[in-house]
Amino acid sequence: MMQNISTALGIGKRELDIYLTLVERGDLTARDISEVLKVPYTKVYLYLSKLEKLGIVTPVEKTRPQRYRAMAPMEVYRKLVATVSESLRQIKPFFDSLQLIYESNVQITSTFLTLVKGVEKINQLVEEVIKSADGEVYMAIPFRELLTYRLLATVVEESRRVEIKMIVKENLLPLELPPRVEVKTIGEMFGGGAIGSAAVIFVKYGGEISGIHSNDRYLIEIARTYFIHLWQKV
């Protein structure tokens, strides 16, 4: 586990030990770290310099002798997610090209279209669409019962990674979302959906929410085109 973390951060064992020590013990001087880890004092500064450049350790202002503070672990995690996501985004066109070559030579049946019913299942699939998206996510939410705490938390977290645009009915405001999530309102909306690398589209009929979930590229493109039209209109 520690080896995986070191590799992901681009640091060695000593740098990771220093970061973990600062997390566990709070702000420390280079001499404190040297004594705790039994590492030569002069080398501690070299390790700290690398950690500073990576932004996961920062010097505490106006302290003598100089003390150092670890970045919050969840912030480090988000930094890693953003870095990995960007790297994956850059290589995606290459794999898209490979997929086209593969599909031209191999008969595959990976496209699906599924009928879904019920608020819980629809919500689960909306979250899945958001989390699996590798570009923009478009959402149209007309029903209050879909705006669960869990769904909003997913939107907040994933908006750090992908751009999210959301249309909601006016009577569903206010929503506690960060400014990076673009939200527009509309007076009436008979149905909704979430569109990313896959799509879930739903309506309410007879008091029950039901819809379809698919990764068919043509259906996704139709849904995306309609959303953009609606977004520009409102």
Descriptive overview:
The protein is of the alpha+beta class and 234 residues long. The chain folds into two domains: 2-74, Winged helix-like DNA-binding domain superfamily/Winged helix DNA-binding domain (Arc Repressor Mutant, subunit A); 107-233, 2-Layer Sandwich (Endonuclease, Chain A). It contains eight helices and ten strands. The chain has helices at 2-9, 13-25, 30-37, 41-54, 73-105, 119-132, 149-158, 217-233; strands at 28-29, 57-59, 67-70, 113-117, 137-141, 164-169, 182-186, 191-195, 199-205, 208-214. The strands form two sheets. It has a seven-stranded mixed β-sheet, sandwiched between helices. Strands 1-3-2 form a three-stranded antiparallel β-sheet. Strand 5 (137-141), helix 7 and strand 6 (164-169) form a beta-alpha-beta unit. Helix 3 (30-37) packs across helix 4 (41-54) and helix 6 (119-132) runs parallel beside helix 7 (149-158). The mean pLDDT is 89.
